[in-house]
Write a structure and sequence with these properties.
10 helices, mainly alpha, 215 residues
Length: 215
C-alpha cells in the first residue's frame, strides 16, 4: 500500500470520525436551520479549504492532472452517464425516504422558505452547489479513485463510495450517500475525468437546495 493511499485513508478516517462525533454531540435546537445563517457558509468555506489543502499536500510530487483526473471527459458518457446516475439516485431516494428519511437526518434544507434569510441562504447555496461538489470530487473521485484503482475498479468504486458516505458523519443517510459516492466514482471510471462528477454532484445538490421554494 502506497504512502499516499495511507495518508488519504487516515485523512478520510479522521474527517469521518470528527463529523460523527460532531453530529452525535450536536447541541443545536431541533428547529435550527443552518442554511439560514451566514456562519454556516463561512465555516463551510474554511472546512473545505482545509480539506483541499490536505489533499494537495498529499499530492505533492505527482501530476495533479493525473491524480485528480483533471482531463477532458470521454464524450460517450459525458451526458448519458450523469442522466443515468441522477435517475438512479432519484429512484433510490424515493425508496429509502419512507424508511430512513436521509434528508431529514442531515437537516440542511429548511422545512419552509423564509424570505428574510434569503441572503444567507444564497451564500450557503454557493457553498453547497459549487464549493462542496468541486472539493469533494477532487478529494474522493479525484485522489481517492486514483489511489485505489491499482487494486481494481470494483474496489475503487465501492471504496470511494463508502468513504464518501462515512465522511458525512450520518447514519440513516449513509446508504444513500454511499450509493451516490459509488455512482460518481462509476461516472469517473466511465469518463476518465472528474468534471462530469462535479457537474452531476452540483445538480444533485442544487435540486435539494431548490426544493425549499416549493414547500
Amino acid at each position: 500500500m502506497s504512502g499516499r493511499l495511507v495518508a488519504w485513508l487516515v485523512f478520510v478516517g479522521l474527517f469521518s470520525a470528527v463529523n460523527y462525533a460532531s453530529n452525535f454531540a450536536s447541541s443545536e435546537p431541533k428547529n435550527y436551520q443552518p442554511l439560514y445563517h451566514y456562519g454556516t457558509a463561512v465555516g463551510g468555506v474554511v472546512s473545505y479549504a482545509i480539506m483541499l489543502g490536505i489533499v494537495l499536500a498529499i499530492a505533492i510530487g505527482t501530476s495533479w492532472r493525473e491524480m485528480f483526473a483533471l482531463r477532458r471527459p470521454r464524450t460517450k458518457w459525458t451526458v448519458g452517464g450523469p442522466i443515468l446516475l441522477l435517475v438512479g439516485i432519484g429512484v433510490l431516494t424515493a425508496l429509502l425516504d419512507p424508511v430512513l428519511h436521509p434528508g431529514k437526518e442531515q437537516g440542511l434544507v429548511p422545512p419552509h422558505w423564509e424570505p428574510a434569510h434569503a441572503g444567507a441562504y444564497a451564500a450557503n447555496a454557493v457553498l453547497v452547489v459549487i464549493v462542496a461538489p468541486v472539493v469533494e470530487e477532487l478529494v474522493f473521485r479525484g485522489m481517492g479513485y486514483s489511489l485505489l484503482i491499482p487494486y481494481g475498479s470494483l474496489l475503487a468504486i465501492l471504496g470511494v463510495g463508502i468513504a464518501f458516505g462515512l465522511a458525512h458523519g450520518l447514519v440513516d443517510a449513509l446508504p444513500l450517500l454511499a450509493a451516490l459516492g459509488a455512482g460518481l466514482a462509476w461516472l469517473r471510471a466511465k469518463t476518465t475525468s472528474v468534471y462530469p462528477g462535479m457537474a452531476t454532484h452540483a445538480i444533485f445538490n442544487a435540486v435539494a437546495i431548490l426544493t425549499v421554494l416549493f414547500r
